[in-house]
Amino acid sequence: MKGSKLVYPGEFLGYEEEFLAGNNAFSDDEGRIYSDSVGFKNEDAEGHEVSVESMKKELRILEKGCIVLGVVSLVKMHGVVIELKSAELNGVKRVVHDRMASLAVFNISREYVKSTEDMFRVGDIVKARVIDVSNYGIELETKAPEFGVVKAFGIKSRMPLHLIAGNLRDPLTGATETRKISSEYLLR
Q: Where are the domains of the chain?
């Protein structure tokens, strides 16, 4: 708000003889009005009210349906552990409050998964959807075509793999590797 004064909690705003305490304001026993938050002072002369327009930011946390990017940190027989790096829902960034998430083998693909190691390797960058956030952790799924590995690294060379004719190829060794490839794979 242009022209408005920035105030802090406990800052004097006026007297009850002049104004009533509005939003984010309070009065003491002696009729003095103070701010209860950081924001801009608003004086409504017609309504005889003084208030504070708060500057609080709304904190948006991870929830079901969020799209996340993370790095594979552990591959087990029945699942994958992914360290989450970023999240968003409908174009709005979300706060990642718990860094680790799990991806069960049955949530990897719509097709039969013989081995989780054929789908993901440690260090791969993965795009996934959150299907559950609970006290027990964050569960992910990569069944849709846009989800899966968006950048993979070779087993032996650790160089980024290039997607050539549907296969991931190591530029140093020429070897091909398999992954649950996202339709948004970065290196083509």
A: 6-54, 67-177
